[in-house]
Structures are given as structure tokens and as C-alpha cells.
Amino acid sequence: GFPRTLGQAKALDRICELDLVISLNIPFETLKDRLSARWVHPGSGRVYNMDFNPPHVQGIDDLTGEPLVQREDDRPEAVAARLRKYKDAAKPVIELYKSRGILHSFSGTETNKIWPYVYTLLSSKIPPVLSDEEN
């Protein structure tokens, strides 16, 4: 997400005025498991997730047949450290937007269960885009 730090939030304030901020509260273990299951094809940057978007052959890129790699920062111990650091850095950002009354938080572990609530919020704030035929 962005902004991740108070410095980034202040920089963003200088270029635009936010009227809506979404915070997704996902349990630590869920995030750690998902990020740790990520593997990439170095040549293309193609990303696979061994749980919900695995390659056809484990450890092999679908298109090239070349080996996939796991980035150092996607290893479980590195992910745990990154998440702890992010939580500490993001806390003041969350508090800032909460104090402005523009923070909307959603909790869960599955995108398809959280998304309808996020969509409803966004739909209530953003007018629908009409096609040329509807205008």
C-alpha cells in the first residue's frame, strides 16, 4: 500500500487532497503465508503463488520452462521481519487518516469476501462511468 510512512503521507498531501483511504487488516500469519508462497521467473518478472496461482510444473515457469526463484525478501523469516517493520511505520499513517475521518478499514483473509465491501464503499463515493450510449 501507499503511503507506507508518515513522510510519504505528507509528500502526498502536497500534491493532492485525499478524501478516502482504505486499510486492509489481514492477519499476520495469512500475509506471511501468502508472501512466502510467491515465486518469480527472473527473466520476465512473472509471478506465481504456490497456493492460488501455481505454475503447471512446480518450480518451472509455464512459458519458458526455466526455473523459478524465490526472492530473498519473500522467504518466511524475511517476510515476518518486513511485516513487523511495515506495521510500525504504517501505524502513524493509519492514525493520521483516522483523525481526518477518511480511513475505512476492512478485515478478513480472503479477497473475494473483502472485495464486495470495498466495492460498495467505492461505489458510494465515485459516480459510475457511463458509456457513450448511456449519455
Automatic annotation (TrEMBL):
| Location of the Adenylate kinase active site lid domain | 38-73
Give a GO molecular function annotation for the protein. Answer: AMP kinase activity
> By its UniProt entry, which InterPro entries does this protein fall under?
Adenylat/UMP-CMP_kin, Adenylate_kinase_lid-dom, ADK_active_lid_dom_sf, P-loop_NTPase
Keywords linked to the UniProt accession: Kinase, Nucleotide-binding, Transferase
Q: Which family does it belong to?
A: Belongs to the adenylate kinase family.
Tell me the HAMAP family matching this sequence: Adenylate_kinase_Adk
Q: Which PANTHER family match?
A: NUCLEOTIDE KINASE
Q: What is this protein called?
A: Adenylate kinase active site lid domain-containing protein
User: What organism is recorded for this protein?
Assistant: Manacus vitellinus
